[in-house]
Amino acid sequence: MSLQSNWNGDEMKEFNIVIAGVGGQGVLTLNNIIAEAALKQGYDVKTAELHGLAQRGGSVPCHLRFGDKIFSPLVMEGEAHLIIALEPLEALKSSYFGSKENKTTFLVNNSRIIPLSVPICKEIYPSHEEITEHLKDFSGRVIILSASEIVKKEVKSVIPTNIYMLGYASYRDLIPLNREFLLEALEENTPKKYVDMNRKVFELGGKEIKIIEDTELFK
Amino acid sequence: MKGDNLSKILSIVNGKKVILMGNEAIVRGALESGIGFASTYPGTPASEIGDTFAEVAKEAGMYFEYSTNEKVALEAAMGACFSGVRSLVSMKQFGVNVAADSLFPLAYVGTNAGMIIAVADDPGCWSSAQSEQDTRYYARMAHIPMLEPSDSQECKDFVKIAFDLSERFKIPFFLRTTTRVSHGKGIVKLGDIVKKNTVGVFKKDMGKFNMMPPRTMQLHDEILKKIEKIREISERTKINFVVNPEIKSNLGIVASGVSFNYVMDALVDLNIKLPVLKLSLTYPLPEKKIKNFIKKYKSILVVEELEPLLEEAVRGLAKDVNPKLKIIGKNGYLPKSGEYDEEIVIAVISKITGRKLNINLKDHLKKYKELKLPRRFAVMCPGCPHRATFWAVKIAAGLNTVFGGDIGCYILGIYPPYNTQDFVFSMGASEGIIHGIKKTTDQKVIAFIGDSTFFHAGIPGLINIVFNKTNPLIVVLDNRITAMTGHQTNPGVGITGMGDRSREIKIEDIVKACGVKYVKVIDPFNVKKMIKTVRKFLNKKEVSVIIAKRECRLLTMRRKLKPGGKFLKFKINQESCRKCGLCLYQFACPAIYKTNDEFKIDLDLCTGCGVCSQVCPYKAIGTVMK
Predict the structure, then answer these.
(1) Is 0.90 surpassed by the pTM of this model?
(2) CB spacing of B371 vs A158 below 8 angstroms
């Protein structure tokens, strides 16, 4: 079994994902879904999560690795193939897990969650340009979407934004896992009453949308 | 989802592969070992062990409880094991300090049925405030054998091994994990769930269970003999093994726990094969096996997080078999504190072997470190009752008052703009320390303590204050749950770990019974009343206690958010708003934000607590149905 990266064609023994977001954005759910799908596809899987105090509105980076044989649950600096960020500042905070060498793709939701340190301690939230410029240094490709807006428009809630990002990644071949396995895992990890909504939001990822930024297209 | 998890952990399909968190795998291992009794006091990163037991206990036909503290949890598990029922008690590393008083004599006396003490250490302090304590010292100090799994599969397997050995040698076993093992997920191959007795008999044995010299001295000799017998197991067991034994090299590696994974990944990424001795039964250590390994190489790299225990052992053993051996460890090569990762291991192997990665990690990080990013510290949730309490206390007491902090979500009061924790140490320490401050200064003092923390270790501190006569104000932040560790029930809730009703123990009753005259239970959402009472109580000549009683907002919201549930939320009336910014800069609810020139409330985040409307000096915040 070898993992084929769909955009650069190199064979890899493993695929490393960092999922970044703020507590409550569904980082852990996304992690569970992808991990279960990787298991279904026959890969070894390890993930690292943070629980407890860190979840109370703080950053919750989650690491996920799958391949023939995985030892450590942590993705090494520069070794992520895909970084899914549910919030732009969190993309920056996890940026060093990506690298030009590994042609990391950043898939970033553009919707900001301003930390209280900005109004209270007068710290500065970086501009859109600063974010894109910095991410370029650590990646092969940066895709920025207004995912929350798209999802809110469709289902009147921003909660399944994480699922939209997953659908988008799957339809753009950013994750080397079969879509049917992702969908199965999605269903198994969703409360019954939300299965239809989550499926719909996942499929929405396959539709053409206006992308805010795609550094590969602009090359 | 909860239900899905339940079916995974209780799955009866032998050989099935599922993804489990290390903490969940420990529970599955216990179920495959015929466990009958489990207890805990919640503490992250061990919390999910207890929570998973709470989920499955009824269906699995076993007993589980959230005990009042770790010492009681340990003692309860001891009672079960003495009565012939296999038991497991789980706790975080600091819990061992609380339990230690009973732990040492337990090791001497030994067990009847198998017994495991599962302890999660937290290198890097991801969810621990007080220190970077290494529980491996306790194993050596108390003479309790220790197993250290590296991943979820080993968590499950090692529980089974530990139960069997514990029962065979009549000694409790430590199962020690670290954060990345406890909270890491991996594939676990399931075995059969085993049913053993959940009902036992305590057979009277005056000679066995009573600690009293000279018996104590005999037992000390006996336990040392037991440890030597278990050392023979440690020499033979397959879980202490060598990877790549055939490789000829000048360098060998010794590693344990999660560090073993970092070593294995580093070897893959550096494209190099080296012999690695993986130690899993780490107390008592397999001395012969280590000697046989280290005598083959010129240098040995020892990779372990926290204290250099294996390194010291290797150094001692090398004197006999390889006196010229160069030992590479925490003697200038690897960090003595903090969590390890693959990067750290790669750096040291690169230094020794000259092998390099294709990325220069130092240059790589440089660009990142140049970034000035706003901090995102953990915050009290929108509608958190602690925020309301802190607000009122700050207004009433002023910032010159000394605020004693304790362990719970309210530790977040440390951060600006509240700064209402002048010190934080350990469970219950707010009261003990504030008493000493009050005795030696004439400053105003207030101690904060949570409901679960009060039951855990707050009662002796309060009695001491009454008995030795100081007059602090103690504010018990009673949010009706043990919130920070993931919403476990406690004696104040009146629901047990099995989900059954129990007597709800009222904190005010205990406080009164301790001899406190000035006691008031107040809803912190009533800001005016809270401010008034704090002012009044601060002038009392005797100790006074306010119980700020209001459910954790996350629980309230879980009920409110059920389908069709509409409720009142709040919005800022832009015409009345004078743009003073108090609601954002000083009250600091995460639902309040500023756009251009207007302060607004994010209705997706607002939980409708309404405290901001009481705080606003211009009455500019009103309700809206949403």
Answers:
(1) yes
(2) no
